[in-house]
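This week, work through this protein record:
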Amino acid sequence: MKDIFIRSLIAGCLGGLIYQMFVWVFYLFDLAKITPFQIGAYMLVKPGSDFTMIFNQLLGSVQHFSNSILIAFVIAAIAERIGLDHFILKGTALGGILYFIIYGVVGRYIIPVSLLQPDLVTSTIFLAGNLLYGLTVVSVLATLNKKMIT
């Protein structure tokens, strides 16, 4: 599959879905205090609105998947330069870098730290989720590239 947009779309959707499901499981067990959909809802709905409402979380899911696809596109562009050999290591490393850029730098300017990083457990779950996201995206890109070659 030669089209980088289609590969990024597929990889970003799968990576975003895996990431949301991973965090959501911990949210159901009351270990994570917030989910990516809720963070997306916080950014899209009117200030003071309840971002945990289902409709608001649906809006948040649009934001979450849009960002997942956009980031997958950047990862796909980087992967074309560095290659996809050792994709487990590269995917995990990119996921870790992504966590520190998004939650450590960029997110602090958009979302209050008390919401973005409510406690150490939630931050750790989000770190693991980002590692899983990076691994998923790079694995899907590697699989799609193999199909392109064969």
In short: Residues 1 and 146 are 9 Å apart (CA to CA). The radius of gyration is 16 Å.
